[in-house]
Amino acid sequence: MQKSQLLLIWHQQGNIKDARILKAFEKVPRDLYVPREYQQQAYEDSPLPLGHGATISQPTTIMLMLQALNIRPGNKILEIGTGSGYNAALLAELTGKKGKVITIEFIKELAESAAKKLQQYKNIKVIYADGKYGYQKEAPYHRIIATAACQEIPDALIKQLKLNGILIIPIGPFHNQEVIKITKLKTELKRESLGGFVFVPMR
Ligand code: SAH
After folding, report:
1. Ligand 1 contacts CB of residue 102 (under 6 A)
2. Of 32, 64, 80, best ligand 1 pocket probe by most atoms within 8 Å of the beta carbon
3. How much is the pLDDT for 105?
4. Phi, psi for 164 (deg, rounded to 5)
5. Cα Rg for the chain, rounded, in angstroms?
6. Which residue has the higher pLDDT, 198 or 100?
7. Which of 7, 13, 111, 169 is the most exposed place for a label (fewest CB within 10 A)?
8. Average pLDDT over residues 42-50
9. pLDDT at residue 14 in the model
10. Based on the number of CB atoms within 10 Å of its own CB, is 144 exposed (0-12), middle (13-18) or buried (19 or more)?
11. What is the pLDDT of residue 27?
12. Residue 175 scores a pLDDT above 80
C-alpha cells in the first residue's frame, strides 16, 4: 500500500477531523526517525523501540494528541520527551516558520541523534535536560505536550503555560494511563480526558 493511503487510513481510523494533521504527517517521513532494524515497520500504526527504554509513539495516538493540542501557526510549543524527534518535526510543521518548538530529552544519545535529524528545522531547539521542570528560559508557551507519562502533572508545566494555553499529558501508573488535556483558564484549569493509552514513564 502507498504511504499516502496508509496515512489517510490512520487519519480516518483515529477519527481525526483536522486536515492540517494529515498534511503534517504527509510532510514528515516517519522512516527517517525509526531505527534501521525496524524500517520494514516504519509505516505500521504501532509504537517502535528506540533503545534506552524509549519508543516512537503510535501514529494514531500522536494524531489524536496533536488534534487536541489545536496548534495555531506561530505558536511557541514545549515538548517533553524528544525521543526520535518525529513528533517534534510534526509540531514544527504545524506551527510553521513563525512558531518555535522547544523539545526536551534526558537521554543524551537520543537528544543528540534527534538534534541531527532535526537540523533542517530552524524553528526547533533540542534541549538535553529533565523535562519535569519544563524550560523556563523560553517560557511561557502557547502549547505543551508530554510524550512520557507522569504520576501527577508537574507544577512547572502549568506555570510555564500561557493563559488559555493547552497542555496534553499522559497521567497515571505504568500501563494504565489516561491522556489529559488541560486548558489554563483565568479562574481554573479545565480538565478533559482523551482516553486510555500506554506511554513510556517520565523519569
Ligand atoms: N516524542 C517521541 C516519543 C518519545 S518516548 C517521538 O516522537 O519519538 C518518551 C521519551 O521521553 C523517551 O525518549 C524518554 O527518554 C523521554 N523522557 C522520559 N522522562 C523524561 C524526562 N524527565 N525529561 C525528558 N525526557 C524524558
Report:
1. no
2. 80
3. 98
4. 65, 10
5. 16
6. 100
7. 13
8. 94
9. 80
10. buried
11. 96
12. no
Residue 203 binned pLDDT confidence (cut-offs 50, 70, 90): confident
DSSP state of 31: G
Q: Whose CA is nearest to atom 16 of ligand 1?
A: 81
Does residue 131 contact residue 80 with C-beta atoms inside 8 Å? Answer: yes
Tens digit of each residue's pLDDT (9 = 90 or more) over 53-103 = 999 999 999 999 999 999 999 999 999 999 999 999 999 999 999 999 999
- Output the nine-digit C-alpha cell for 116: 541531527
Would you state the pLDDT for residue 59? 94
Closest CA to 76 of 54, 55, 92: 92
The yes-or-no answer on residue 84 being catalytic is no
Does pTM top 0.85 for this prediction? yes
**With contact defined as beta carbons under 8 Å apart, do 85 and 29 qualify?**
no
φ/ψ region of 175 (left if φ > 0, alpha if ψ in -120 to 50, else beta) reads: left
Alpha-helical regions (H) of the chain: 3-13, 19-27, 59-69, 86-95, 108-117, 155-159
Q: Could you identify the atom of ligand 1 that is nearest to the CA of residue 33?
A: 8
Q: Which among 112, 118, 149 has a CA at the least distance from the CA of 132?
A: 149
Active-site residue, selected from the candidate residues 4, 46, 57, 84: 57
**What sign does the CA torsion over 183, 187, 191, 192 have?**
negative
152: cell is 501527577
**CB-ligand 1 contact for 132 (6 Å cutoff):** yes
